[in-house]
Structure formats: structure tokens, C-alpha cells
């Protein structure tokens, strides 16, 4: 299993924004299962998905990957 800092941050931001996994997955044009894999640390989102998440959550990519506190 990969370090789950990114997945934990995605989950926190998703919940903070009141989104279900399906809601965020639809906005990213990925499956709910793919998003679940990111959140539990089985996979890491690609850079384009990270950029889109940053836009959706109104945060920087650095915050998603854990380079800054939020």
C-alpha cells in the first residue's frame, strides 16, 4: 500500500465540500471505485486529476499532496 497522505487529504477535502465519492468521481470523469482507490491509498491520481481536484476544492495541488497545511 502506498503512503496514504494524498488519499487522506482527498477524503478530508471531499467531505469538507459535502461531496459523495460518486459526486467527485463524476466531476473528474472517473469511476467511484477509482476515487475510492485513491482515498484508501491503492492508487495515486495523475497530475491532471490532481489539478482538477484543486480547482473543485479551491486549494492548491500542494495542499492535496500534503506540502502545505490546510
UniProtKB/TrEMBL annotation:
<protein>
    <submittedName>
        <fullName>HTH-type transcriptional regulator immR</fullName>
    </submittedName>
</protein>
<dbReference type="InterPro" id="IPR010982">
    <property type="entry name" value="Lambda_DNA-bd_dom_sf"/>
</dbReference>
<dbReference type="GO" id="GO:0003677">
    <property type="term" value="F:DNA binding"/>
</dbReference>
<feature type="domain" description="HTH cro/C1-type">
    <location>
        <begin position="10"/>
        <end position="64"/>
    </location>
</feature>
<dbReference type="InterPro" id="IPR001387">
    <property type="entry name" value="Cro/C1-type_HTH"/>
</dbReference>
<keyword id="KW-0238">DNA-binding</keyword>
<dbReference type="Pfam" id="PF01381">
    <property type="entry name" value="HTH_3"/>
</dbReference>
